[in-house]
Write a structure and sequence with these properties.
Elements (H helix, E strand, L loop, with lengths): L47 E4 L2 E4 L3 E2 L3 E8 L3 E4 L5 E3 L3
Antiparallel strand pairs: 1-2, 3-4, 4-5, 5-6
The structure holds zinc ion.
Length: 91
């Protein structure tokens, strides 16, 4: 009884020569954008008040960044979104 066993030729298991790739981190991991609710956008117009020909700025400007950089109005402080400067309101 000589049963021929079909030789299953497998690829020789050679030591895999994996190329060492430098781990490249993805530069930006974009977050899945959540559906934005339509908000009423606050534009710069909310920072100005026009009275006739006079324009008054309702928000204080950043001391560090200079005029042109408005500070956000919080209940107890003003903050600059540009440099992070915080100025506390005086009670
Ligand atoms: Zn600033």
């Amino acid at each position: 009884m000589s049963k021929k066993v079909a030789k299953t030729e497998e690829a020789p298991a050679e030591a895999k020569t994996e190329e060492k790739k430098p781990e490249v981190k993805p530069q930006k991991t974009e977050k899945p954008k959540a559906e934005k609710k339509h908000k009423k956008q606050k534009g710069v117009h909310s920072l100005y008040k026009v009275e006739g020909e006079k324009v008054t700025r309702l928000h204080p400007t950043c001391e560090r960044c200079g005029p042109g950089y408005f500070m956000a109005d919080h209940h107890d402080r003003y903050t600059c979104g540009h440099c992070g400067f915080t100025r506390y309101k005086r009670a």
